[in-house]
């Protein structure tokens, strides 16, 4: 299974993401520059955090217009995994690969600390290594992580079990304490907390590791075991 980590101008978690996948998991991965990236030979696309285009206009809005996001949309349409973390999540909502939007945190401040999350849905390719209802700890680092969607969209998210992670102590004002959601097809996950910064105990938590392990395990089950 091969991972692509896409860096935009202003990304700053691309190396953390690459390191988590390549060095800690030992998976095959490349760090790609958005302008020259060709995603044809990759199985999973990882959109890392940061401040793409300086967060101008709206967070993620300018990156969402890039050519590489057209490739990401084609990849997603094939049912292949796409993970967006923090600014990656913002790019996914701006690209309409996920519903809703990320607004300024309710206290209008940038926040950077550990949060306790609940795993609400472990029946996705990203979360099978967790138990449903399990609490895990991951760091957040954002100024615009306040997830918002309209009431009809929220009912759809609930009905289709698209809410994957929630905050125990909602730090940013997100509706329904939402920290991460998947699309209806469950192959595109966006989340504000950073699993790539929680892949070994030295970093304060290793709870993020199982997200990447889930992905590799489920990929093998689908594409290798049955080949
Ligand atoms: N770490 C990040 O990805 C930061 C996300 C985003 N630019 C914000 O502050 O909301």
TrEMBL record:
The active-site annotation reads: 86, 194, 196
Catalysed reaction(s) here are: N(2)-formyl-N(1)-(5-phospho-beta-D-ribosyl)glycinamide + L-glutamine + ATP + H2O = 2-formamido-N(1)-(5-O-phospho-beta-D-ribosyl)acetamidine + L-glutamate + ADP + phosphate + H(+); L-glutamine + H2O = L-glutamate + NH4(+)
Q: Which UniProt keywords apply?
A: ATP-binding, Cytoplasm, Glutamine amidotransferase, Hydrolase, Ligase, Nucleotide-binding, Purine biosynthesis
Gene Ontology CC: cytoplasm
Give one Pfam family, short name only. Answer: GATase_5
| InterPro entries for this protein | Class_I_gatase-like, PRibForGlyAmidine_synth_PurQ
Q: Which residues form a coiled coil?
A: none
Compartmental location:
Cytoplasm
Assigned EC number: 6.3.5.3, 3.5.1.2
Its UniProt pathway annotation is: Purine metabolism; IMP biosynthesis via de novo pathway; 5-amino-1-(5-phospho-D-ribosyl)imidazole from N(2)-formyl-N(1)-(5-phospho-D-ribosyl)glycinamide: step 1/2
Molecular functions (GO terms): ATP binding; glutaminase activity; phosphoribosylformylglycinamidine synthase activity
Give the main localization category: cytoplasm
The biological process GO terms on file are: 'de novo' IMP biosynthetic process
Q: State how it assembles.
A: Part of the FGAM synthase complex composed of 1 PurL, 1 PurQ and 2 PurS subunits.
Among PANTHER family, the record links this protein to: PHOSPHORIBOSYLFORMYLGLYCINAMIDINE SYNTHASE SUBUNIT PURQ (PTHR47552:SF1)
Query: In UniProt terms, what function does this protein have?
Result: Part of the phosphoribosylformylglycinamidine synthase complex involved in the purines biosynthetic pathway. Catalyzes the ATP-dependent conversion of formylglycinamide ribonucleotide (FGAR) and glutamine to yield formylglycinamidine ribonucleotide (FGAM) and glutamate. The FGAM synthase complex is composed of three subunits. PurQ produces an ammonia molecule by converting glutamine to glutamate. PurL transfers the ammonia molecule to FGAR to form FGAM in an ATP-dependent manner.
Q: What is this protein called?
A: Phosphoribosylformylglycinamidine synthase subunit PurQ
What is the scientific name of the source organism?
Virgibacillus dokdonensis
């Amino acid at each position: 299974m091969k991972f692509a980590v896409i860096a935009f101008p202003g990304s700053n978690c691309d190396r953390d993401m690459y390191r988590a996948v390549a060095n800690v998991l030992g998976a095959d991965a490349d760090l790609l520059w958005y302008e020259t990236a060709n995603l044809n030979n990759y199985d999973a696309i990882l959109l890392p955090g940061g401040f793409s285009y300086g967060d101008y206009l709206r967070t993620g809005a300018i990156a969402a217009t890039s050519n590489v996001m057209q490739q990401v949309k084609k990849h997603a349409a094939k049912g292949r995994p796409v993970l967006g973390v923090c600014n990656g999540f913002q790019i996914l909502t701006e690209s309409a690969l996920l519903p809703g939007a990320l607004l300024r945190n309710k206290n209008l401040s940038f926040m950077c600390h550990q949060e306790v999350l609940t795993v609400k849905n472990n029946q996705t390719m990203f979360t099978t290594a967790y138990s449903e209802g399990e609490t895990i700890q991951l760091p957040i680092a954002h100024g615009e992580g306040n997830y918002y969607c309209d009431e009809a969209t929220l009912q759809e998210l609930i009905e289709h079990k698209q809410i994957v992670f929630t905050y125990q102590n909602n730090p940013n004002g997100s509706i329904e304490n939402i920290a991460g959601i998947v699309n209806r097809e469950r192959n595109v996950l966006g989340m504000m907390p950073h699993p790539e910064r929680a892949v070994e105990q030295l970093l304060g938590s290793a709870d993020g590791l199982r997200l990447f392990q889930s992905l590799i395990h489920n990929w093998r089950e689908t594409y290798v075991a049955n080949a």
